[in-house]
Write a structure and sequence with these properties.
By secondary structure, this protein is α/β, with parallel strands linked by helices. 39% of the residues lie in helices and 21% in strands. A 5-stranded mixed beta sheet has the order 8-7-9-4-10, with helices on both faces. The two termini are 39 Å apart.
């Protein structure tokens, strides 16, 4: 008896797919209950050959890993003066509602307009696209209430790190897998469950 079970992280599971050669649904449920003492209400059984099952499992695992790594962005600084932030504080920073963080006046950076990192970051943190954010910052700038974050000329992490290194109280954001080793991560932004 060979069974491949593709189990996603528990918060994403609404159905378990089982790739089986010789078992029907009732036997699979009984066997899983015997082995793991779990009761499963929603099972889908697909009959494939061994190589197709293995290939599907490998590809699905790779895609899951890539998506989870690309879904995370870090708000960070190179200074050790700051403590980790709450989500509400990060939202206040990137909406221009505060210029100070833990008693220190800060400067924020931003990626170039055409950079996908900028679009995804604002979508994940604030649920806004670039047009909405540009309009928002234009209103704040015109009224004199706040200035938009400094746009880094070259859309690279190296340029961002160089800009952050000039002054101690500068803050930026980047995909978590591109962070420099000396980054002080203040908050990790990920897509909220809907």
């Amino acid at each position: 008896m060979r069974i491949f079970i593709n189990i996603l992280p528990l918060d994403k599971v609404d159905c378990i797919y089982i790739f089986s050669f010789k078992m029907d649904k009732i036997n699979v449920v009984k066997r899983l209950y015997q082995l793991f003492n779990i009761k499963i209400n929603n099972i889908r059984i697909t009959r494939f050959g061994f190589m197709r099952c293995l290939l599907f499992f490998i590809l699905n695992s790779l895609v899951s890993l890539q998506v989870s790594a690309n879904d995370l962005y870090a708000v960070f600084t190179l200074s050790s003066d700051f403590e980790p932030l709450t989500k509400s504080k990060v939202i206040m920073l990137f909406r221009g509602k505060t210029k100070y963080l833990q008693g220190k006046k800060i400067e924020l950076s931003d990626w170039p307009q055409n950079n996908n990192i900028r679009h995804e970051f604002y979508q994940k943190l604030l649920g806004k696209d670039l047009a909405q954010m540009n309009a928002y910052w234009a209103r704040l700038s015109f009224s004199g209430k706040a200035r938009p974050p400094k746009e880094i000329d070259n859309g690279s992490v190296e340029s961002l790190v160089e800009w952050l290194a000039v002054k101690r109280f500068r803050i930026g954001y980047a995909p978590i897998d591109l962070l420099p080793a000396n980054a002080n991560v203040l908050y990790i932004v990920k897509k909220e469950k809907s």
